[in-house]
Amino acid sequence: MGKDEKERLTLYSLPVTRLDAQEEIVKKFIENSPKPSLLLMDRDFTIEVIKLLDKMSIKFIIPAVMNERVKIVVDDYIHVGHILHSWLHSVQLMDHSKS
Asked: Of 74, 39, 77, which is closest to residue 56 (Cα–Cα)?
């Protein structure tokens, strides 16, 4: 390709409806794509997706505002022996950017 031409790469695609569970969509994506070294995700993913990624040993970052609900989720993971380093780091970065 020439330097002015853009390359496109489609890893995986599937039809999705509002009735599809997020964790099933993410699972299908990961199973049908090369394993990512770090998965960057939008903020509207559920705790089930976080548990799936943790179970599959996929590092990820999901931006979140550090509120009471997020603190509870983080505390729950810490108490069961899991610490979401990437996720916590992204939350800390967001908190510092507000000051």
From this structure: 39
- Residue pair 34/60 in contact (Cβ under 8 Å)? The answer is no
Structure tokens at 71: 């603190």
DSSP 45: -
CB 98 within 8 A of CB 71: no
Average pLDDT, the chain: 77
- Domains of the chain, by residue range, sit at 36-98
Q: For 37-75, what is each residue's pLDDT tens digit? A: 888 888 888 888 888 998 998 888 888 888 888 888 777
Alpha-carbon span 23 to 55, nearest angstrom: 12
Flag whether the pTM goes above 0.70: no
Q: Where are the alpha helices (DSSP H) in the chain?
A: 22-31, 47-55, 68-79, 85-98
